[in-house]
Design a protein that fits this description.
Cofactor: pyridoxal 5'-phosphate
Keywords: Aminotransferase, Pyridoxal phosphate, Transferase
Bound molecules: pyridoxal-5'-phosphate
Number of domains: 2
Number of strands: 17
EC number: 2.6.1.42
Enzyme class: transferase
CATH topology of the largest domain: D-amino Acid Aminotransferase, Chain A, domain 2
GO molecular function: branched-chain-amino-acid transaminase activity
């Protein structure tokens, strides 16, 4: 036993099979008690609703080692709540919040030797997900489901320092008005694949999506919410019904207000305003904040004054404070940190 012998600091952001995963099955209107198993293979009908009609949703969070050697995870209760919204929207059964949180903790505990050490920059990525598993051919929800949690160690998001990225304003939409943009459904990612591959081919790191009804207001990227900083130091973040409610963004907003006494506005952001901001960044579990240096709007380049060399001062301070809270170096608000004992 003991820690796995991995080159933690050089791990990619990829999947590595770990020792155990959690599986619960839903049948005849109820969840079974669930268990931790060794087998990493899923066996389902060739006609499973997930395979034919993409009835699936997921979550993402992390576990890590704090400075004083505790193993913790961050706000899993919010992932449970968000998955509940996703399930309801996709006609899937809810896996109860208390059980979700316990299953996350149990799965981390069962793979404790895969939790990267403090200071390595690596973390244990935790992926809860659910799918319709029995055969359906007419379009309707499945009657049977699996809820699973897998964990995999992932390397530091920024290897060799934080580097600002260039994004483009996208012509393709990731969400529809009154669609599923606000839930973590696999289908939102399937339909973003073409566009992200095309963005990369054209030299852009990400697509910045605008509101699908009018293509006027900034929404988010394929997998992260967006933050802006104004000249007078305010934090501004887009408000829209088709944005996925990022837990990182909601936490950063609270950190900005309560720890750094920064004024925060959540409002519509017209794309004409982009050149007024001094800093811009993406936020999500993977990178916490990753800075944007340049936005390409159909050939017109908007250069953020924070530049292409480093993250601007306000976003840096925000990132440092939240990662300090997560790593146990700064006192966390009540209920944010769950210790794995
Ligand atoms: C998961 C996700 C995010 C980030 O959410 P976090 O809870 O902060 O990890 C942002 N946008 C989209 C579209 C996502 O799927």
């Amino acid at each position: 036993m003991g820690k796995k012998n991995l080159d933690w600091a050089n791990l990619p952001f990829g999947y590595i099979k770990t020792d155990r995963r959690f599986v619960a099955n839903y049948k005849d209107g109820a969840w079974d008690s669930g268990k931790l198993i060794k087998d990493d293979k899923v066996k389902i009908s060739e006609c499973a609703c997930v395979l034919q009609y993409a009835q699936t949703c997921f979550e993402g969070l992390k576990a890590y080692t704090t400075k004083d050697g505790r193993i913790v995870t961050f706000r899993p209760d919010l992932n449970a709540e968000r998955m509940e919204s996703s399930c309801k929207r996709l006609e899937m059964p809810v896996f109860p919040k208390e059980r979700f949180v316990k299953a996350v903790i149990d799965t981390i505990k069962a793979n404790i030797n895969w939790v990267p050490p403090f200071g390595s920059g690596a973390t244990l990525y935790v992926r809860p997900y659910m799918f319709g598993s029995n055969a359906v051919i007419g379009v309707k929800p499945a009657d049977e489901y699996q809820f699973r949690i897998l964990v995999t160690p992932v390397g530091p998001y920024f290897k060799g320092g934080v580097k600002p990225i260039t994004v483009r304003i996208s012509d393709i939409d990731r969400a529809a008005p009154h669609g599923t943009g606000d839930i973590k459904a696999g289908l939102n990612y399937a339909m973003s694949l073409y566009n992200i591959v095309d963005a990369h081919k054209n030299g852009f790191a990400e697509n910045m999506y605008t509101d699908p009804a009018t293509h006027t207001y900034i929404e988010e990227t394929g997998g992260a919410n967006i933050l802006f900083v104004t000249k007078d130091g305010k934090l501004v973040t887009p408000k829209s019904g088709s944005i996925l409610p990022s837990i990182t963004r909601r936490s950063l907003v609270q950190v900005a207000k309560d720890y750094l006494h920064i004024e925060v506005e959540e409002r519509q952001i017209n794309k004409n305003e982009l050149s007024d901001f001094v800093e811009c960044g993406l936020c999500g579990t993977a990178a916490v904040i990753s800075p944007i240096g340049k936005i390409n709007d159909h050939g017109k380049e908007i250069l953020l004054p924070s530049g292409m060399e480093e993250m601007g001062p306000v976003l840096s301070k925000l990132r440092e404070t939240l990662t300090g809270i997560q790593m146990g170096e700064i006192e966390a608000p009540e209920g944010w940190i769950y210790e794995i004992k």
